């Protein structure tokens, strides 16, 4: 893939660190952003380049959300011309493209951890809601900004946020466009922990990422698949699915390696996930 313009990527020790890198623009999500993020995530996941993704940012804010150019450049959500119903159908498909830019995080075989500083606004809430685990600095806040510009959030906030925090909080944030401070976000379960500085947060996140990367990649991928399936299905369906998964993915050699490594006081050596075939 071509060199990204909105992100920095570093892959080391089986951890892929994706950093939003437009601090002067408050890391607003311009048109390249929506193409580059899924390309990065899918390349990492499809080609088994890492075992964990860490998503962080630069500057004063994590992200200011959707860049206004996406609305006004004549090619995106406000593109005109033609029959109104044809435009409506095209808009639906355009929104689905935007949604898939974040769905890649949710659908990846490996966990994604978000480290959030400052404002996480609009599309930022969509993005971090698609991650597996979230941490924030004390100055962080979350805002469903769409209501303040006269629209309904549509890129993933509601389907995912309603599974992460109580519905009453989703409704308050969605209807009023209020800011949710980091400490309150922790209290209601949106984030796992609050840190005084970004440096302390990233140190914690990278240590967690290293711990996850040391586990069996197959077991981690299976755990993520089961958690996501349980989130979206009934308990009975979840139990049936995990039984079927275990019938094919139960791996005694991986378990024996874990036991041996513990007994020998060494790091375990697990096989990596296989790259995914995308072409015949």
Describe it.
- This protein is an alpha/beta fold.
- The protein has 2 domains: 7-213, Alpha-Beta Complex (2-enoyl-CoA Hydratase, Chain A, domain 1); 217-264.
- It has helices at 31-46, 69-72, 84-107, 123-129, 157-164, 167-176, 182-187, 198-213, 217-232, 235-249, 252-264, and strands at 7-12, 15-20, 52-56, 112-116, 119-121, 133-137, 141-143, 179-181, 194-195.
- Strands 1-2-3-4-6-9 form a 6-stranded mixed β-sheet, with helices on both faces. Strands 5-7-8 form a 3-stranded mixed β-sheet.
- The longest helix has 24 residues, at 84-107.
Brief characterization of the structure:
The protein has 280 residues and is an alpha/beta fold.
Notable traits:
single chain, 280 residues, alpha/beta, 2-enoyl-CoA Hydratase, Chain A, domain 1, three-stranded mixed beta sheet
Low-confidence stretches: none
The count of domains is: 2
- Biggest sheet statistics: 6 strands, mixed
Number of strands: 9
The count of helical stretches stands at: 11
- End-to-end separation: 20 Å
CATH homology group of the largest domain: 2-enoyl-CoA Hydratase, Chain A, domain 1
Supply Rg: 20 Å
Q: What does the average pLDDT come to?
A: 94
CATH fold naming of the largest domain: 2-enoyl-CoA Hydratase, Chain A, domain 1
Tell me the name of the CATH class of the largest domain: Alpha Beta
- The CATH architecture of the largest domain: Alpha-Beta Complex
Task: Give the DSSP E fraction (strand runs of 2 or more residues).
Answer: 5-15%
Judged by helices, strands and strand pairing, the structural class is alpha/beta
N-to-C SSE string, H for helix and E for strand: EEHEHHEEHEEHHEHEHHHH
Sequence of strands across the biggest β-sheet:
1-2-3-4-6-9
Helical proportion? 40-55%
Shape: globular
């Amino acid at each position: 893939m071509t060199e990204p313009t909105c992100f920095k990527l570093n892959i080391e020790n089986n951890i892929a660190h994706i950093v939003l890198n437009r601090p002067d623009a408050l890391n607003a999500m311009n048109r390249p952003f929506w193409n580059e993020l899924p390309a990065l995530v899918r390349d990492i996941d499809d080609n088994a380049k890492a075992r964990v993704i860490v998503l962080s940012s630069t500057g004063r804010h994590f992200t200011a959300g959707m860049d206004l150019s996406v609305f006004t450049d004549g090619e995106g959500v406000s593109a005109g011309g033609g029959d109104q119903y044809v435009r409506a159908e095209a808009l639906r498909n355009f929104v689905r493209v935007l949604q898939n830019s974040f769905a890649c995080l949710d659908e990846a075989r490996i966990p994604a951890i978000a480290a959030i500083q400052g404002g996480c606004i609009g599309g930022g809430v969509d993005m971090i809601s698609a991650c597996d685990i979230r941490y924030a600095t004390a100055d962080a806040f979350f805002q469903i900004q769409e209501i303040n510009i006269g629209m309904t959030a549509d890129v993933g906030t509601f389907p995912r946020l309603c599974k992460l925090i109580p519905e009453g909080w989703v409704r308050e944030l969605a209807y009023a466009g209020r800011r949710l401070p980091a400490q309150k976000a922790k209290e209601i379960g949106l984030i796992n922990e609050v840190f005084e500085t970004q440096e302390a947060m990233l140190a914690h996140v990278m240590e967690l990422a290293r711990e996850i990367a040391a586990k069996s990649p197959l077991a981690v991928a299976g755990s993520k698949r089961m958690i996501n399936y349980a989130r979206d299905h009934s308990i009975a369906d979840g139990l049936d699915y995990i039984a079927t998964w275990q019938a094919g993915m139960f791996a005694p050699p991986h378990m024996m390696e874990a036991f041996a490594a513990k007994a020998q006081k060494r790091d375990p050596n697990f096989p990596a996930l296989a790259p995914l075939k995308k072409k015949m």
